[in-house]
Amino acid sequence: MRVAVLLDDRCQPKKCDDQCHAFCPPVRNGQECIIFHEKTKKPIISEQLCIGCGICVNKCPFDALVIHNLPEELKSDMIHRYGRNGFRLFRLPAPREEQVVGILGQNGMGKSTAINILSGALTPNMGDWHIEAAEWDEILKSLPKGELRDYLELVAGTGVRVALKPQYVDHIPKAFKGKVGELLTTVDERDALDEVTADLGIDHLLERNLPQLSGGELQRVAIAATLLKDADVYFFDEPSSYLDIFERMRIVKILQNLSKGKRVIVIEHDLAILDVLCDLVHIVYGTRAAFGIFTPARSTRKAINAYLDGFLVEENIRIRDKPISFVRGAVRKEAVGLPILEWGDLEKTLGDFKLTTGKGTIHETEVVGVVGPNATGKTTLAKIFAGELEMDAGWCTMEAKVSYKPQHITAEFPGTVREWMDAEIGNSWHVGEFQTRVVRPLEVDKLLELDASRLSGGELQAVSIVICLGRDADIYLLDEPSAHLDANARMEAAKAIRRTMESNEKSAMVIDHDIYFIDIVSDSLLVFEGEGGTAGSAIGPLSLRKGMNRFLKGVGVTFRRDHDSKRPRINKESSQKDREQKANDDYYYS
Ligand code: SF4
Ligand code: SF4
Question: Which residues have C-beta within 8 Å of that of residue 204, sequence separation ≥ 6?
């Protein structure tokens, strides 16, 4: 089955020479394989006449076309298609009673379409794009007996009540003007405001205005608003963004409790959290913005291992060129190169908050991971090193040239990504090695002609990482580089940071809450402890193992290594392994 998709936001007929049409072999032979829309002047591709040569894909200067051959048997699995050359979705995940079902895959593969169908907001057209929606009888008849069909019978019949936690919580203050308490009272259908806000640790925020909240606080308010709805099925789109690991573990417990009486679906890119949270996982793969294919549910461990391996055995499909592999922590070198940055007894007071540090050193080619609870001063220390904040006391060698990617990033550049990168880092990103090491793995090469101001959160993060790593510096400070990136992009970003430091003999300090990211990227760890918003202290850098042990002991969570993939896995609380490791003071089994 041939799939020809036009990425509408990329196609710019006024700026090109219609190369797609000019070079298409069937067109040159007089066939109407590509014609142009009368009004938009954009190409319309005939999948019947297209021979799948891919010439138009290579010739289009704006990467606006995707041509793909898919197995014929998928044809009957098409659930929805947006227009003749639009995105198409194959198969759906199945919400199950009393279970947390996870969705794992890259952004842009149709998870929003899937959620809209499962919530009843969109009736699928089963691939017939001429019609708005198919008849439910026909839809149900086309599906095999099982969980999904049972569930969709409910959607088609009595309907299901749905609660959705949106992906981008930063948009909430724009949509609702007022206090946290007012928002939550409005949506409280279960009369459970006190209980839910106490469980989430946000009962002290009720009188605060929404724009005053931090990202982590907004995330918990959004989760509370979802839990307060009286629904049959609950969707949580990236519930861990902006949360530290303490809060992530708290959310795991809350969602697992919720699933005891309800169906719960979670889209999550922190693989350690997905692993411990879900009963089953559907992988979704495909080509961004062109098509997405949901696999049947697998056990969580099998799904994550298959995803990291990049090969889906049951489907006989390779979804990534190379596996993502984890290095056992003990193999990492502990002392590396000459000192690049040193500090001692730093102090900084900001309002009611005070940060203190001991003595620390970052060496050449060393990547220091930074972990700790929210609001204990990680960003404050990064800003001091970046020269954006003055310290009150202590000392710090300030000779090193610093490149800094802040936690909150915005794109106000009035031009394309290409122009933005040229303006920020000149020619450095055009160099072949940097392209192979950083630009292409982060798929920024596919964003070059897009408007910088219209990038999605994940795209903006990827471009910001490229800009940060593309500057000439001695030390690279990256604050939450995994935020908004999907699981695949996170692993690629972690590897890109490591490769850059190793080959350029530079250093990096990386603040993040994703344990897989930290595990892949770090040689050593700077551990923050203290009381969020009041006092924080930085300990280290310590060796990765020592640091993880100290950090995880504070969280009360133990990790083991998966024996196949070597990835870290959170032990179930009070399981035999958890108890044994805690007794041996071995929280991070490397
Ligand atoms: S697909 Fe590419 S080459 Fe064809 S009209 Fe659009 S921008 Fe031009
Ligand atoms: S892939 Fe299809 S549409 Fe594109 S140039 Fe080849 S035949 Fe024409």
Answer: none
